[in-house]
Structures are given as C-alpha cells and as structure tokens.
Amino acid sequence: MLDGSGSIESYNFNKVKSFVQSVVEAFDISSGKVRVALIEFSSQAEVQFDLRRFSNEQDVMSAVGRMPYFRGGIKQTPVVGLVTGTA
C-alpha cells in the first residue's frame, strides 16, 4: 500500500516509488514464488495491480514507475479485499 494523499507531496511520493522498486528487486518475482500487489490510497483506494497481474520483476518495476500520484485526502478503506479480489 502506498500513501497517495496530498500530505506527502510529489517529491516524497517518487521517493516511495523508488523504495518499492528496491524492495521488489530483493525478491524472486514469479508465478510459482513471490507475487506482488499494489494499492494506492488517498481519499479513495485504487488497485494499481493485484496479485494475479504480474509474474516477473520487470513488469512490476514498470508498473510502479508509471503509477500516478493522486494527491487526495486520507480515508480508511478495506484494502485487503482489494488485493485479494474479495472486495
């Protein structure tokens, strides 16, 4: 989950995306091993990609890099169901 609220500002949001990419590099992303999902939250939560979407590191890294910054407010949402597809 990434905070896309206006309180972190664009510069810090890009730092967070870089951090996520460095974490992704530490794992063996594949369909039989590690899967990754990402939700950006602010006034709403939006699934950027779920656990089924990508099965390799390159695709995850590209998706994180393209992720937009919402700049919304902060609202608590039931995000676990969004990642697992049960929401």
Description:
This protein is an alpha+beta fold and 87 residues long. The chain has one domain: Rossmann fold. 38% of the residues lie in helices and 13% in strands. It is built from three helices and three strands; from the N terminus they run βαββαα. The chain has helices spanning 9-25, 57-66, 79-84, and strands spanning 2-3, 38-41, 45-49. A three-stranded mixed β-sheet has the order 1-2-3. Helix 1 (9-25) links the parallel strand 1 and strand 2. The chain is globular. The model has no long low-confidence stretch (mean pLDDT 83).
Question: Which keywords apply here?
Answer:
alpha+beta, Rossmann fold, globular, 13% strand, 3-stranded mixed β-sheet, 87 residues, 3 strands, 3 helices, single chain
Question: How does the SSE layout of this entry go?
Answer:
Layout: E1 2-3, H1 9-25, E2 38-41, E3 45-49, H2 57-66, H3 79-84
Parallel strand pairs: 1-2
Antiparallel strand pairs: 2-3
